[in-house]
């Protein structure tokens, strides 16, 4: 607004036509009828609601599934951790 007033321009020139009072009055000029009472609503047969269909996500799929806590660690991962600990232990033994 500071730039618009500094340039001596009108703020109304920068407002979208849909946001003017005239557009609002044209929109709500017609009568909006109230919604009938719930007793007057038509009765419909209830349908079974099904879950959405499974869609595959975009991107690269994971190679392995996530293991549960009761399954324990993967043997390869465990061996890799043990090798690292063995390396650290052997360094301290050489001191």
Q: What would you note in describing this structure?
A:
This protein is mostly helical and 95 residues long. It has a domain at 1-32. Helix content is 33%, strand content 0%. The protein has helices spanning 2-6, 21-27, 75-93. The N and C termini lie far apart (73 Å). The mean pLDDT is 79.
List the main descriptive attributes of the protein structure presented here.
3 helices; 95 residues; mainly alpha; flat
Which helices and strands occur, and which strands form pairs?
Layout: H1 2-6, H2 21-27, H3 75-93
Structural class estimated from helices and strands: mainly alpha
Quaternary organisation: single chain
What sort of overall outline do the alpha carbons produce when their principal axes are compared?
flat
Show unreliable segments. none
Proportion in β-strands: under 5%
Q: What fraction, in percent, of the residue positions are helical? A: 25-40%
The SSE string, one letter per element, is: HHH
Mean pLDDT: 79
Main beta sheet? none
Total number of β-strand segments?
0
How many separate helices? 3
Radius of gyration: 35 Å
Q: What distance separates the N and C termini?
A: 73 Å
Biased composition (Basic residues): 53-66
Region (Disordered): 48-77
Biased composition (Basic and acidic residues): 67-77
How would you summarize this macromolecular structure in one to three sentences?
The chain is mainly α and 95 residues long. Helix content is 33%, strand content 0%. The protein has helices spanning 2-6, 21-27, 75-93.
